[in-house]
Specification:
It is built from six helices and two strands. It is mainly alpha-helical and 156 residues long. The chain has helices spanning 11-28, 39-47, 58-77, 95-100, 117-128, 139-155, and strands at residues 2-3, 33-34. The relative contact order is 0.15. The N and C termini lie far apart (43 Å). It has one domain (2-155). Helix 2 (39-47) packs across helix 3 (58-77). It is 53% helix and 3% strand. It is globular and about 40 Å long.
């Protein structure tokens, strides 16, 4: 399992999610490899100029490309014949956009939402006591989450 999440806005949140990934890897008996955390690089490479893009917009597409390129590079350097991503388990991530983010022939385009994949992930997380985050990780998606909550509060 390759954990690459430089998109996460704070070191604290990164470590919290990494701890959950470690628990999952341990429960499944697989090795976990953590990619280096470099949010400053992610901001330069992905978000610069796209800060005000809406969620699921061009910034997210750039983020998918960034993460999948890092995963592809790791897979190539270590002799993996194929790789995929867990991004498609989320109902908030359009699988078509995730699939379009990599042209690497080793990338397996698997829509994990199918066959109740999201519900299975929720159930498995509960069984293992894993942290489930309410946003993708970057400060821009968190801003959208907070704006949505404020809007909901104003309506009630």
């Amino acid at each position: 399992m390759f954990f690459s999440n430089s998109n996460i806005g704070t070191r604290e949140e990164f470590e919290r999610r990494l701890a959950a990934a470690r628990r999952l890897a341990e429960a499944d008996g697989v090795e976990l490899v953590a990619d280096g955390y470099d949010h400053a690089d992610w901001l330069r490479a992905v978000a610069a100029g796209y800060e005000s893009e809406p969620e699921k917009g061009r910034r997210c597409e750039r983020c998918f490309r960034y993460s999948l390129a890092r995963t592809a590079a790791y897979a190539a350097a270590h002799g993996y014949e194929a790789f995929t991503t867990s991004l498609t388990v989320s109902p908030h991530k359009p699988s078509e956009k995730v699939f379009a983010a990599s042209d690497d022939p080793r990338f397996m385009r698997e829509n994990f939402k199918k066959r109740d994949g999201f519900m299975l992930s929720v159930r498995r997380s509960a069984e293992l006591g894993l942290y489930r985050q309410p946003y993708c990780g970057c400060e821009f998606s968190r801003r959208g989450l907070e704006e949505g909550r404020a809007s909901l509060t104003e309506r009630t």
